[in-house]
Design goal:
Elements (H helix, E strand, L loop, with lengths): L4 H7 L2 H16 L6 H10 L4 H11 L3 H5 L3 H4 L5 E4 L2 E4 L8 E3 L4 H12 L9 H11 E2 L6
Parallel strand pairs: 3-4
Antiparallel strand pairs: 1-2, 2-3
């Protein structure tokens, strides 16, 4: 065991310190994850949202004809969506990570945002960090607002 902690910290190689910091960050970054009850609520809310209903109907029987029935803004990005276990998933151009599509339900969006920002396990991360945490798991229109 080192007796002179200050000297050890100063004499550490910088690349060792980075690895230790990265290892610590891994445990902190993922404080919230979508719970099954949220996902059930999201699935239920799809029935009350016009866009998600259109997309789910399209993926139930995809064809050129059903694609033409989609609203123009959905048709342009339909290739970014897919359905898995009754959840509508969205992936961005930047990566292929699937995000759960949240329908236009203000109460549901608020609950999810609360869990990622205000819940005791989230550490109250602030606007930018909350946005980054949310966009890792969820997608909705005008999400940054």
């Amino acid at each position: 065991m080192a007796l002179n902690v200050v000297a050890d910290a100063l004499s550490c190689r910088p690349d060792d310190v980075v690895h230790k910091a990265d290892a610590n960050a891994i445990g902190v970054v993922r404080t919230s994850t979508p719970s099954s009850s949220w996902l059930d609520d999201v699935r239920s809310a799809y029935a009350n949202d016009a866009d998600t209903k259109q997309l789910l109907n399209y993926f139930a029987a995809p064809s050129d004809k059903s694609r033409q029935k989609l609203a123009k803004h959905l048709r342009a990005r339909v290739h970014r969506y897919r359905v898995h276990n009754g959840l509508l998933l969205y992936s961005t151009v930047d990566d292929n990570a699937d995000r759960v599509v949240v329908p236009d339900d203000p109460e549901l969006k608020l609950r999810i945002t609360y869990e990622y920002h205000d819940a005791p396990t989230s550490g109250h991360p602030g606007r930018e960090k909350t946005y980054l945490l949310l966009t890792r798991d969820f997608y909705w229109s005008h999400q940054y607002k």
